[in-house]
Design a protein that fits this description.
Helix content of chain B: 25-40%
Structural class of chain A: alpha+beta
Oligomer: heterodimer
CATH architecture of chain A: 3-Layer(aba) Sandwich
Largest sheet of chain A: 4 strands, mixed
Radius of gyration of chain B: 44 Å
Order of helices and strands of chain A: HEHEHEEHH
Number of helices of chain B: 18
Number of strands of chain A: 4
Strand content of chain A: 15-25%
Low-confidence stretches of chain A: 1-15
CATH superfamily of the largest domain in chain B: P-loop containing nucleotide triphosphate hydrolases
CATH architecture of the largest domain in chain B: 3-Layer(aba) Sandwich
CATH class of the largest domain in chain B: Alpha Beta
Distance between the termini of chain B: 156 Å
Number of strands of chain B: 25
Strand order of the largest sheet of chain B: 5-4-7-8-3-9-10-11-12
Low-confidence stretches of chain B: 556-565
Strand order of the largest sheet of chain A: 2-1-3-4
CATH topology of chain A: Glutaredoxin
Amino acid sequence: MSKPLPEEKKIGSKPPNHEAWELRLYVAGQTAKSVTAFANLKRICEQYILGKYKIEVVDLLKNPTLAKGDQILAVPTLVRKLPVPIRKILGDLSDTERVLVGLDLRHLAEQIA
Amino acid sequence: MKTQSIKTKRLQPLQKISSGISGLDEITGGGLPKGRPTLVCGNAGCGKTLMAMEFLVRGAVEHNEPGVFMSFEENEEELTGNVASLGFDLKALSAQKKIVLDHVRIERSEIQETGEYDLEGLFIRLNHAIDSIGAKRVVLDTIEGLFAALPNHSILRSELRRLFRWLKDKGVSAIITAERGDGLLTRHGLDEYVADCVILLDHRVNEQLSTRRLRVVKYRGSVHGTNEYPFLISKDGFSVLPVTSMGLDHPASSERISSGVNRLDTMLGGKGFFRGSSILVSGTAGTGKSSIAAAFVDAAARRGERSLYFAFEESQNQILRNMNSISLNLEPWVKKGLLQFHASRPSLYGLEMHLLTIYDAVKKFKPRVVVMDPVTNLISVGTEIEVRSMLTRLIDFFKTEQVTALFPSLTTGDSSQSEVAISSLMDVWILLRNIESAGERNRGLYILKSRGMEHSNQIREVLLSNNGIGLVDVYAGPATVLTGSARIEQAGREKADVDRRKAQIAVLKAGLEAKIDELNQEINDENLLDQVNAKSRFNLAANRQADVEPKLKSNGHHRIEEFVK
């Protein structure tokens, strides 16, 4: 029972500071939601991980088979492929705070602030 | 234009597709609604997934309707493994493009919601799976898993509503499974959206025995059986057993077969039972029910017919040993394959499972004679109504197969009343009872009813000895009916009576003979006297020189002549 404690501490004290961010945004056609989501994502990345990220947009209408691979149900879904572990963020990413939590970027946001 | 289209729609009855589940099509009058979603709800472990899977596999294999199985719980390997025991090879079916298995895995921990979204991803995925094999059937198992994964239920609800609409538009026949909620059909109220056909599965444990039941709660645009029907999950899959599935149109044979007890055959119009009839042998403990059953089985084997003995009380070896004591040696028949025992405790499984095992065994072994000893032990498994309905189906089944069935039935106390429930199903009712009198117990037998034949109304006494089963007439005297030692004693008494009479007659006879002797003596004496008189008369005549010789009496004439010389 004592084991999880130091680990937790480690994560808290040493936040991930990765060089490569691989993000994938799943959408279904050019809907208002997908356009908003892309714009929001772009804005956040520019602000916090400038130059270290790569965004791939997957249109499921064009590539329906890809939905199975990342277990996509909802659109838009943002998948953080790297750094691991994989994270999924549903919705149009309009709640910046939640996106930062989802992408594990909170500490960077705090530093900047 | 519009009115016309409405008219044609009204005239067209609801189209149905076979569910592939035996019995369910009969309840629903042809199957599930074609091109519409059906909701199957029930508690955990009641067979929802299996029913859905069978619907899909049977559709693909038997009706050439490919299907998509979208699972929100188990992955492809687990599903394949789970139904492999039923003989469904999902891997082969997937390879033949008859079935697509799609596991939708959602990890709540990986998911963060921000803002607006919809489930278009799921639609696209399902659409792609359907189009890839031209699927006609779809299963979503259990879509309620989404409620745990996606926190925003208002989005989910509106999307599910859209999904079911979309499935209808797509024209696929779908089964959607859902967990049963507290006092509700489904935990998240899915029945509001899928309203065309709702089937409820139920798994109840009563007195430590489980019974599965199915009920069609709702079927829009169609009549359907509204009862709860028991169903089974066996190695052959899912099967529902509607009581009404068998009609009363079985053949009636006029062939007669021996009961194995000579005197019993005599009582039954001299020829025994009708083939294919059902015989109830009821009696209290120790009245010889099993012995009569064994004799019946023995007689069948002697005719070269196969018989199946379901024993709910004793093991095979015990029965063989016990029947040996009344010189019924059944073991050779077992070895020859003419007799098979199925011994099991009734509480081993529920009534429906019993019914199915019996069906299976009869279909496989094809016996002409079946014994269920004792049928009353099954009552401990269910209520009287359930047992009666099960027996009805069983008897119908036996009659259809032209199997003669004998049901020993244990009764308590005065037996003729307690069995009204099952006796009406029977063709012959033989009642065995203990007759207690003069400090001993004896077995009495009589035939309470025997449909379609002349039968004796006499009570016979059953004698079980190492010479087998014997029926003897009871002593029916002017004042009383006697059995056992009282009967033997009565017979003894009668014999003594006869002996005494004989002795009396002998004495009388002796007396009579003595009298005859005495009379003869007297006659002799008389003759002698006559002769003496005649002689003196003769002498006298001679002395008087008579001209006519005096006549001697014919009686004793010879002796007199002799005497003269």
